[in-house]
Amino acid sequence: xxxxxxxxxxxxxxxxxxxxxxxxxxxxxxxxxxxxxxxxxxxxxxxxxxxxxxxxxxxxxxxxxxxxxxxxxxxxxxxxxxxxxxxxxxxxxxxxxxxxxxxxxxxxxxxxxxx
Length: 115
Known about the structure:
By secondary structure, the protein is mainly α. The protein has a domain at about 1-5 and about 20-65. The protein has 6 helices and no strands. The longest helix has 24 residues, at about 25-45. The protein is extended. The N and C termini lie far apart (about 45 Å).
């Protein structure tokens, strides 16, 4: 049931069976799994549910956007080189630009958004 829930949540998920070649790597994997397990447990408790698969997206997003002590950066920023964008930021740019409908979006809107 667990793997089926994962496959339904992430259609393109590839599951690889096996273990890490080095014990140190296995320890890091287990630590990451424990972090996810604890965070999902808190999410389920807070939301009064046992449907952990519904909490995967918000919990993983939360983990990936939390500042790590070792790097003083979020995992998201380390991987992608930028902070994640939010709808709030997009609407703020649209509002400040005086855009009232999509036909008035400038051709370089994506470039403006990237600034």
